[in-house]
Amino acid sequence: MDALKSMWGTIPPATPGELAEARRRLLDGMRPRPRFVTAPRLLVAAGVAAAAAATALVIGNNTPAYALARSSDGTLTVTVNELRDPDGLQAKLGAAGVEADVTFLAAGTRCAAPRFAAVDSTYDGPPTTGPDELRAVANESRSFKATKVTSIRTIRISPEHIKPGETLVMEFRDNPNGQAPWQLGSWLAQANTPVQPCTPVEDPN
User: Fold this and answer.
1) pLDDT single digits (tens) 61-85
2) Per the domain annotation, does 187 fall within a domain?
3) What is the pTM of this model?
4) pLDDT 10s digits, 112-123
5) Residue 7 in domain
6) What is the tally of structural domains in the chain?
7) Which of the two ends of the chain, N or C, has the fewest CB atoms closer than 10 A to its terminal CB?
């Protein structure tokens, strides 16, 4: 301890100019930098609104990978407990009247874009800067209105926002390190246009 005190005693005090420069560098480091988000942009962590207050569920061996229920107002509630059998979930959505293309992805990957012609810019529009602009784009899109994550495992689909012939494209990505079990990218493809098969690629984000 005495040696440490002696060492500090040999360091001259900082000048006012040096203190001002150090303060400027500290503030620069704390100032938020613009984040450019490129397409496909609207990849939403499951339970964005609810995950902070929710407790992760323990899924037993007998719990189905997914379930679908229709509400009296016509909306569909999709519960995804496990990323398994995307074709089965796609078939269930089709039987409920929603033409869908469902893909389950490993963590840290995404489908190479573009796969389809989207109805709005949430998929293949120009890059946005910052969360406020991204939120504004999302709130104006039918893709965002058609599909919303409502809890850490559930999604609400509103068919009223899906026009005849349009395809609901859903890309689920495993999220093993977060409180939410998966992330979802969901968009509407233009009516009567093809959706290409997913080619998984590394997601730099």
Assistant:
1) 567 999 999 999 999 999 999 999 9
2) yes
3) 0.70
4) 999 999 999 888
5) no
6) 1
7) N
